[in-house]
Amino acid sequence: MGLFRKRQTYRFVSEDALAKNLASQTEMSPQTVAELHRIGVSPCALLRLEYFFYADEKANGEALAAALLAKGYSSECCPAADGSGLFCITGWTTPIAVHDDVVVKWTAEMCQLGFTHDAEFDGWGTTPGQSDPS
Fold this sequence. Notes:
By secondary structure, this protein is α+β, with helices and mostly antiparallel strands. About 40% of the residues lie in helices and about 20% in strands. It has helices at about 15-40, 60-70, 100-115, and strands at about 45, 50-55, 75-80, 85-90, 95, 120-125. It starts with 14 loop residues before the first helix and ends in an 8-residue tail after the last strand.
């Protein structure tokens, strides 16, 4: 009887990378929210957020874009502009309250959603005073 080992599958985003990215992104989000408040955005404001993910496989990027579209977000997957061979998944959310708790929870959700599709959440931005950023 032979020994069988489970073959490890390649992942672009490892569990360790997810944990590090989650910690980093959820630490940065309140800083970004604080800066938005500093420039006059109300904590009650609802803004659409522009998000960015990277994947190394087009199929993973397209699956993630489809999952984001299913959430009501705009989304597209295209080759990264830097020529790295990666795929950038970007778009805009529906309006979200610009409040620490809400944005940190959303950020953690995006990190996990990216991991589910073997893509890395690279962060978000927004446009204060927006009417329709799309």
